[in-house]
Write a structure and sequence with these properties.
Length: about 250
């Protein structure tokens, strides 16, 4: 069995036996008991299942690495023919305590996109008629507000509250159409330990961060770091760093 993907929106892992793909939901209280073995390319997911690849590179080798061309767009379409003619939302997001980003997405999936990123707060600040205009606005705003936030920054905010005054100061320069406030139900009293494992009881997910309780400690796992691992039932056999709370 190999972990071949994850779903940051609905919270799940995709595990393959080399052909068929099983969806493993990561609902709070779910017990995971996978031991991570060798890691190699996760191959490619198709409508018919999974096509494996034994190349050493992980999570994907060069042949199976794809870059969404729209993610690099700043207003000049990079496709042979522009196809983003539906309404797009320009949004702001915050990650506790005070890390901000600007982004764009199709208007109908705005709340889903914010959850996929693990945002603590969000604000819909503009609606425009196509993706090209949205990317132009994003590129302009990105001169002052970052357009990406790395996972370590998101992880460092786990268990912390949003700086309300900093978030409000950012919004004061806009007239939000709608705002969002997300609660991922993690109920953390201290920052989880950064680890790569798939053993423990699921506390919850926040974007692509999976929070697990195991052996008296709480761990935060970047699900992308799990992709490509062969897994064996039975749980981890590694010695793991314990959180300070485990010694209380």
């Amino acid at each position: 069995m190999q972990i071949v993907g994850y779903d940051a929106g609905d919270s799940g892992l995709l595990v393959s036996d080399g052909a068929d793909v099983e969806y493993v939901p990561l609902d709070p209280g779910t017990d995971l008991s996978y031991r991570l073995d060798d890691r190699h390319c996760a191959g490619v997911l198709t409508d018919d299942g999974h096509r494996p690849c034994d190349a050493d590179a992980a999570p994907h080798c060069e042949a199976h690495t794809s870059t969404w061309v729209c993610a690099r767009c700043t207003g000049t379409c990079l496709k042979d023919e522009m196809d983003c003619f539906d309404d797009h939302a320009v949004y702001l997001a915050t990650f506790a305590p005070d890390t901000f980003k600007v982004g764009v997405t199709r208007e109908w999936r705005l709340e889903t996109r914010l959850r996929e990123q693990g945002a603590d707060r969000g604000a819909h600040v503009r609606t425009v008629e196509n993706g090209r205009i949205a990317r132009e606005i994003e590129a302009e705003l990105a001169t002052a507000i970052p357009d990406r936030v790395r996972v370590p920054e998101k992880r460092s905010g786990l268990g912390r509250a949003v700086d309300d005054s900093a978030w409000q100061a950012l919004l004061d320069d806009f007239d939000p159409i709608e705002t969002f406030d997300f609660d991922y139900g993690l109920d953390l009293s201290e920052r989880p330990v950064a680890e790569t494992l798939a053993t423990g009881t699921v506390r919850g997910t926040k974007g692509r961060l999976l929070v697990l309780d195991h052996a008296g400690s709480t761990y935060a796992v970047d699900m992308r770091d799990l992709v490509g691992y062969e897994v064996i039932d039975g749980g981890t056999d590694r010695r793991l760093q314990s959180s300070l709370g485990a010694f209380g």
